[in-house]
Design brief:
This protein has helices spanning 80-86, 108-111, and strands at residues 2-4, 7-8, 13-23, 28-33, 46-51, 54-66, 69-74, 89-94, 105-107, 115-118, 123-132, 137-142, 152-156, 163-167, 172-175. It is mainly β and 181 residues long. It starts with a strand and ends in a 6-residue tail after the last strand.
């Protein structure tokens, strides 16, 4: 199973990243990418950007890796003032525009909200979010009123070791995990 980091936003779009701040004086912007690898965000020739409740489509003129981050030039954004107006806006993509994944691959937004059970049938809670650690990804599972307790657990996302079964159609995941941990 492979994981792809993309944050959910609603039923039709996912957040790919954020335009953070201007870069230089010619309208370029710094990008914080939620995709993995981070450069994958540049594979989409158009993005949807969200400012408040408004969504609009914008084309990428060019983009590149710059130091430890990414910078982009967007169509119609030709100076620093125009770039400043877009700072701190989310970059979105319609879910149907995301690449099709193999049967054993999942986007993170597909895992978030799933109910997690042990192999013994104990309900541990729901996947709140996932994050990278370098060695492996980690799922944050938060207990709720229907769980065995209300603890928050950090489970390594290790397919075939910890993650035994994922049933997206049921919103359910089975893990090889001792409920005492």
């Amino acid at each position: 199973m492979t994981r792809f980091e993309i944050s959910p936003t609603d039923d039709t779009h996912v957040v790919l990243g954020k335009l953070t701040s201007p870069y230089g004086v010619k309208g370029w912007l710094k990008v914080y990418s939620y995709t993995s690898p981070m450069e994958s965000i540049l594979e989409y020739p158009e993005w949807w950007i969200r400012q408040g409740e408004s969504l609009r489509r914008i084309s990428i003129v060019q983009g590149r890796r710059q130091g430890k981050g990414i910078v982009v030039q967007l169509k119609g954004v030709d100076d620093r003032s125009a770039a400043e107006a877009l700072a701190q806006t989310d970059i979105l993509m319609p879910k149907e525009a995301l690449p099709e994944l193999a049967d054993d691959e999942y986007y993170w937004h597909e895992l978030e909200g799933m109910t997690v059970f042990t192999q013994a049938g104990e309900r541990l809670g729901q996947v709140s979010y996932l994050f990278e650690t370098g060695a492996n990804d980690v799922m944050v599972v938060r207990g709720d009123a229907d769980s065995i307790d209300t603890r928050e657990r950090l489970l390594p996302f290790l397919p075939d070791d910890v993650i035994i079964e994922i049933r997206p159609e049921e919103g359910r995941m089975v893990v090889n995990w001792d409920s005492e941990f």
